[in-house]
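Q: I have 128 residues here and want to know how they pack in 3D. Can you give me a structure?
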Amino acid sequence: MVYNNSNIFVKFFGVAGDPDNNDFLVPWSGDGSVTEVQITLGRVCQLVGLYVHCVTAPGGAFVDTYTVNQTTNPTAAVCTITGAALVATPWTGAIAVAADDTISVAYTVSGGVATRDCFATLVFRNFE
């Protein structure tokens, strides 16, 4: 996590877990077997951006979807990567985050390579 006067930047590194179970991004283990990565920011803020990049593209007409979960509930913060692309179109908006909310990034793959090395950067507007 990186803080400045107005923003908090959080980067999730990972590989996809079992795509049949819509597993979450996990640390760079290479096998996707590690449990879900989640954080608690410990402060009131807003999620204002989601940026996703993968090392391996989905390929063909396949689509990878990345969704920010807030205390296990999916939010409107969603990015997709399709075909030969390596970078998702960024999501921007404003989602209120309470100090005790946990934040995670869920990954869903529609086909192609079962696991891909990727990272998601979340940007939060700091209110404290």
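Q: Anything worth noting?
A: Residues 27-35 have pLDDT under 50 and may be disordered. The longest strand covers residues 45-54.
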